[in-house]
Design a protein that fits this description.
238 residues; all-alpha NTP pyrophosphatase fold; two-stranded antiparallel sheet; 10 helices; globular
Length: 238
């Protein structure tokens, strides 16, 4: 069950992240549900959907895509209230109690009758129609072996990653999303397994660990480039 305290914390963190990206984010009115469409499609890719070839579900990355969907869902709810956290919280808790049936495209669809990929497709369809369904998202959590507490933990992790990206040049294009042979999402998953998520300073410890990894990886790359540049040129034999 989604706790009110968790919902309140996540909305506050999301509003802070949006403001870091653009202090005028409410006025900018970014199409957050368009991002849900893209993240939903990426989630389908991680789950696997191609009937003509063998595919394995990458559960960890699928879960991370759900966390991304949740980020943009929260942003949409905040935008609907003009950035009012209290009003957004009230709306979220109301939407949480919506029916397990979704009316879409002239049909009444029972959420629990759908498999995971079909749920993701419906999530994408609703996002295209500028709508969200919290019960649908909750059902997706179950399909992806998560609960609201686990989502909360991973949300905090991804929020820290987003702040980390912004602090290291994501907006101006200088940030390297791929380092030490892996995307930063993969580094985040690894770091989170190494830390105690119940630690009172979990958020700051997570940021510090990511920073240390990133600096170590980028330093190694810089050192390698420097060595290549300084290597003596061996003349070819005539």
């Amino acid at each position: 069950m989604l706790k009110e305290t968790q919902a309140k914390t996540m909305l506050e963190m999301q509003a802070a992240m949006n403001a870091k990206v653009n202090p005028q984010w409410v006025e900018a009115a970014y199409p957050y549900l368009r991002a849900v469409v893209i993240e939903g499609a990426e989630a389908i890719e991680h789950h696997g959907w191609k009937w003509w070839k063998k595919q394995d579900c990458d559960l960890e990355q699928l879960q991370m895509e759900l966390v991304d969907i949740w980020h943009f869902t929260l942003s949409h709810l905040l935008l609907e209230t003009g950035g009012d956290n209290t009003a957004a919280l009230a709306n979220l808790l109301t939407l949480k109690n919506d029916s397990a049936m979704v009316n879409f495209d002239g049909q009444s669809i029972a959420i629990n009758s759908l498999d995971a990929v079909s749920k993701l497709e419906l999530c994408i369809g609703l996002a295209c129609a500028k709508r969200v369904s919290i019960p649908l998202f909750e059902a997706l959590l179950v399909d992806c072996e998560m609960n609201w507490n686990e989502l909360f933990c991973q949300y905090v992790g991804k929020n820290v990653l987003n702040f980390f990206r912004q602090d290291h040049g994501y907006k101006d294009g200088t940030y390297q999303k791929l380092w030490d042979g892996k995307e930063d999402n993969e580094h985040l998953v690894e770091v989170m397994t190494e830390l105690d998520s119940d630690h009172t300073d979990f958020r700051n410890l997570l940021y510090k660990s990511l920073k240390e990894r990133y600096q170590r990886a980028t330093k190694q790359e810089d050192d390698q480039i420097k060595q290549l540049q300084e290597a003596p040129v061996v003349p070819r034999e005539s």
